Each structure stands twice: as structure tokens, then as C-alpha cells.
Fold each of these.
Amino acid sequence: MPAIAIIGAQWGDEGKGKVVDLLAEKANMVVRFSGGDNAGHTVVNSQGEFRLHLIPSGICSPHATCIIGNGVVINPAVLIDEVDQLNRRGVDTSRLFISDRAHLIMPYHTLLDGLEERWRGKKALGTTLKGIGPAFADKVARLGIRTGDLLDRELFWERLQLVLAYKNAILTGVYGESPLSADEIYNQYHHYGERLAPCIRETTVMVEEALNREELVLLEGAQGALLDPDFGTYPYTTSSSPLAGGSCLGAGLGPGRISRVVGVFKAYCTRVGSGPMPTELEDETGDLLRERAHEYGTTTGRPRRCGWFDGVAARFSARINGFTGVAITRLDILDVLPHLKICIGYRGDGETINYFPPSVTALARCEPVYEELPGWQTPTSDIRRYEQLPFEARQYLARLEELISCPVNLVSVGAGREQTILKKPIL
Ligand code: IMP
């Protein structure tokens, strides 16, 4: 059996949690490979509704081993709280494991995230303030502390003292804040370490063994391709790669092991935080999409910016990820609209362009070129077969398929696991 990567294809919040939860019924392993608790994956199934930030969305499937891979940054307090909440609701978390190479979010990371945003002023990125950027920056700067370090008290203390001396110099010298206490952090993290120790592992071996046993392994992405630090709307991006390529690095397997890459797209676009979004609708249609779909951040509660489907960004996303198929979510949200628009090109600096510009200033100048399609104005939430969808809905999906140049595997028409139309099997 292959590894399948499930990738956010837009600016995050595409509904990856639902797709992973659905596929996890058949999977033996689900590995989260990037981001941190900036992500919010909502899963609705027979056990209830769950909002997960760090724990893989396969946790409700009793046969799936769930791994938080080395590519994730972990706030241990958030993780422990998430485990406790799941346990209280009767979800078994004994199949959850954490990579010993995953970096920890430390108290100075969350503090610095807020201070850096304040320092940016009008140019603030609109981060989730969870310490994600500072934690990934420390990883690359070789100043990080990893979950595996929690297992060795002396090493952890030594490492903390070294890094904290530097962080305190920044907190006090640059930002005029009070220094943090090494003792307090040590005691707090020592306690977290004791709690998490049983699930901290060399997880790449577990992934390899599962693949060698021909088991189905899902690689669960967080955020979306357009938030990738290399290919997204830099600097208005996140700090780890949400791309299919990132799944190899963040889970610890070679690209040849991945046989399918499923891109998850919403039937329209949303974005939360700052940065250009060419198809944004700052009108009543945008408000209608937001209210119908309750487009408010799972992690921060912020209203999401809503807009028409962006075919240019979608094609770019498909190219840099190498999608073999796509899932289109939230089609039902469009049920009430009399007509729909799809962006098929941009007009920028007097010329029409059909690629996604690398510069945010160029992208911000882009005016979308729209194609208009009729709406279907029929409820679709109870439909389970593709042929039963209204003609206009199939026409809309066919146009998306054409623009993305990739077959649609499944269509989601509601939050529930069962509210899914399988068009073409993924496997
Ligand atoms: P950070 O990842 O918290 O540093 O935030 C950087 C940017 O990514 C901000 O615009 C956030 O709103 C956005 N972002 C981070 N995580 C998510 C997510 O899970 N969904 C949507 N946007 C996100």
C-alpha cells in the first residue's frame, strides 16, 4: 500500500481534516508533517465534532496509528490539553506518537511572535500568535529544543540555559520586556516531558515499517500551498512547508514512497491574516459566503476573507505539489448563489497574465479576469452520488477540474463524514 499525501491547496482551512478523517477509516497510519497549533482541523463523525490543532485527524479511527512528525513544532501544553479533551470524550489516544526530532514551542516563542507582530505595525503578518514563526526560525538557526531533549534532564537544562540567555537578551534589550526564568521553564517542561515521554519515539522507523507491511499511510498537511514560505505570498506566509515536498521532510520518508498527492480545495477561496488575495469579495456575496460557511478561524476565531475560486492560484498549486487528484470541499455553500465566478487569469500592469506572480506587490496589483457560470440554487447537502448533482454544479466542478488539470476524486457537501460524494476512487 502506498503513502498518500493530503495537501491544503489554497490558503489553508480547505477541509483537510474531514478528508483525512474519511480516508483514515481505511488507513493504518496518519502522520501530521508540518505546522503546529496554528492549524485547526475540524472533524465531524459519529463520535461528535472535534477541533484538532496538533493531533492527526485520524485519531478517531481505532485502527490508525497517529504520528506527529518531526516537521511539526509542538507546544506541549496545547498537546496535553488536546489529549485530555479527547480522552474525556472517550477517544482513545494510546495510538498517538510524537517524533523525538519535532521541535518544541517554548514560552519565549509565543511571546516573541506577539512582540514581532507589534514591531511590524501596519505591516503585521496577521500570524496566529502561537509562536510558530519564532520556533521554526530557531530550528533553522540551530537554537531549537526538541521533544527528544525532554527525555534527558541534564541535556535539556544545558540547552535551555544556553538558548534562554540569548532570548532574554533580545526580550530585555530589544523589546524592553522582563527576562524569563530558566527555573520556571525547566520545571514546567520537565513536567510536560514526564507526561509525554511514553509517546516520544523515533517515528521514521514506524513509518518505514508500516510501508514495508504494505499498509496505507496518510501524510496530513496543515495550512495551504499559498502559505508556503518559498512559493506562497511571502512574507505573508507561514514558516514550514505545507507542500507535498514538505511531507517527505516532515514525516521522514523518501519521495518515491508517495504514490498519490491529493490537493484539497474549497469550492471558493478563503484567507485569514494579511497579504494579497486577488479574488477577495468585500461585498455582500463575501459576507454571505462567510456566514453560510461560518468562515471564522478554528484557532483564532478571526473572520476569514472570502472570495471566488482562483483558477490561476489553483493551477500553480497543482504544479508545485504534483497533485494526482483533488477533493473539492464545501460545494453546498454555493447552493444559494444565482451565478458563480471563477478567476481564469489576472490583469496586471496592463497585460493579462496566467501565472501566479512571485512578488506580493505584483499580486496585489492583479485584477482577476472572471468567467461567469450559472448557479444551481438547489440544496446539495443530501446528495451522495455525483450524477445526482444538479447539472450546473457538475458543470462548475468540470470547469474546476479543467483549470486545475487534475481529476476530482471527491466532493464534500457538508461537514459530516457521510456528506461526501466519491467521484473517482483515490486508490
Ligand atoms: P503563523 O503560521 O501563525 O505564523 O501565521 C502566518 C500566516 O499563516 C497568517 O496569515 C495566518 O493567518 C496563516 N495561517 C497559519 N495557520 C493557518 C491555518 O491553519 N489556516 C489558515 N491560515 C493559517
Amino acid sequence: MTLTRFLTWLQHSVLLLAVLALPVKAQWYRLPFQTMGTQAYVELWSEDNNLGKDLLIAVQNEFERINQKMSPYLASSELSLLNREAANGLVTISPEFYQLLQQAEQLAKLSDGAFDISFASVGFSYDYRQKIKPSAAELQQQQPLVNYRHIQLHPANQVSFSRPGVKIDLGGIAKGYAVEQAIGLLASAGIKHALVTAGGDTRLLGDKRGRPWLVAIKHPRKNDDIVAQLPLTDSAISTSGDYERFFIEDGVRYHHILDPKSGQSPSGLMSVTVLGSDTTRTDALSTTLFVLGLERGMALIEKIDGYDAVFIDINHQLYFSSGLNQ
Ligand code: ADP
Ligand code: MG
């Protein structure tokens, strides 16, 4: 072999080796994980092994980042900071947190207070695992503190509460927001097919490579059963149910969705599923419609363009909004 031939051979071999070493592996990447007190799951299609794996971790980290800001269980969260200090004066929070409070406020206005993050002023007196509920006296004292108008959003990301004792909680909107952020992160990284889900909130990016994703609506009374499976592409879906966190006492089901007007759990429905484009909205809307009940809930969802709902009432009857009825 002449030197030039040897060099050409070497070049080709090196090239071949380089090609073999490229981390090309087109496949589905999947990761179940625990976050925000619930089970979450991400599934994505990537053509690059390193990218696929890195993005699974990036999604998990994004959830944790949001949890650090919004958890009511962490004293260091921005939410806890507000609950400790906002009744004493202005508290400055991050623009991200402030914007989510603005979204919550919009929905409170739109639903005439059915969605109200200050439900926590009473909500924190319930402990569903320990079967604890507020006494009649506590309820009477805390009920006037539930009112979204007590949460005052000032310029420059400042917030105050107008009364001592007001508490907020983002359990009805934060998971949907985190799902939406996670999908945004995947889309920016060039991913075209993905599913992210946390608790009852799911967002789909693209389709499942040639076919729609299938998302199930759980049976509200039979744990591992489903009542419907919806073929979906590029959309968001959230379910709120009275079976997620609850206890039953004297025949009354005390569950984690509260009517801000009474401080008690609404009893007309067993679950509400909302479909649309944005998971922050589907999450908050499912909670909202649950509070409003079938008639008022249906009237509200019919007014919101691009959003639809499936209600299951206490008699196991299903009701679809007009966009799903066609
Ligand atoms: P999950 O996905 O946790 O089951 P949902 O979307 O069904 O949650 O919302 C229920 C959560 O919303 C409750 O755990 C509570 O944190 C919060 N919540 C309850 N009632 C209201 C309300 N009227 N307005 C806003 N948030 C609420
Ligand atoms: Mg919700």
C-alpha cells in the first residue's frame, strides 16, 4: 500500500468509525416520575439518543422548578411567601408567578368566582387523608376570606392580600401550567411528537407518528376502568374528579374541589373533562366547570372558542358540549 492509499483508507475508516459512533437512534423515549404530589409521565420521539435522554430529564427538571415556586408544602416557595406576608403589605414575586396569578384572576372573573385560588383560605382546613374538615365555626370564620378580589395584583409584579387570613393555592392550575411549559420546552428543542401528563392534565405534541394519541377518561367510580378513549392530536385535555382526593363521612363525599361560595364540595358531578389547546386553561377550566355544575358549566364552555367538555353527572350520565357532538 502506498502512503497516499494508506491515508485514503485511514480517512475512510475514521469516517466510518465516526458515523458508527454518532448517537443516532430514532425511537420513543419514556420516563415516568413523581412530581407535585402526583404521577407524571413524558414520552417523546427523538432521532438522537443523547437528545432524547436529555430531554426526558429536562422535562422532569422543569416540573421540579415550577414545584419549587408554587408548592404549598415548601416554606421556600413563592406561594408560601405570599401566604405568609402578602396580608402585611406588597410582596414582589417573579414575573412567571405573577403571570400565572393574572391568568387565575381572569378565570375567576370569567366564572364569576367559581374558580378562585383563595379557596385555600378554607381549603387548608381540610385534610382528606386524615379525614379532617373545618368545624362549622371555622367555616363561618374562614368563608369570608375566600374571594379572589382579596388578591390584589399591583404593577411591577407586586401582590398584596386585602385581609389577614387570606391564603391561596394553585392546585387547580399549576400542574396544567407545568405540562404546558414542558411541552414548550420539547417543541423548542425540535421535538415533533410527544405526550406529557401529570395527574389529570395531558398535552400532546403532534401525533403518535401517523396515528392519533389515545387519551382515556377514567371511570369515576371504578379505579382501573375507563368510560371513553379520545383520539387526539396536538391538543390539551384535563379531567377533574371527585374521586381523586376525598373521604366519606355520614354519606357525604368531602373531596378536593371546593365551591368558593360555600367552602364545601359540589355534589352534582363526578367528573369533568375539558379539551382545548392550552393545558393551563384546560386544567383551570375543568376545576371551574366542576364547581359550576352541568348547566352553568355547559353554558360557560359553550362561550369559550376552541374549548369543549365532557361532564359525567352523579347518575353516570355523560354530557358533551356542542363541539364534540358533531
Ligand atoms: P387534580 O388534577 O389535582 O385532581 P383538579 O384540576 O381537579 O386537580 O383541581 C383540584 C385542585 O384545585 C384542588 O386540589 C385544589 O388545590 C384546587 N381547587 C379546589 N377548588 C378550587 C376552586 N374553586 N378554584 C380554584 N382551585 C380550586
Ligand atoms: Mg383542574
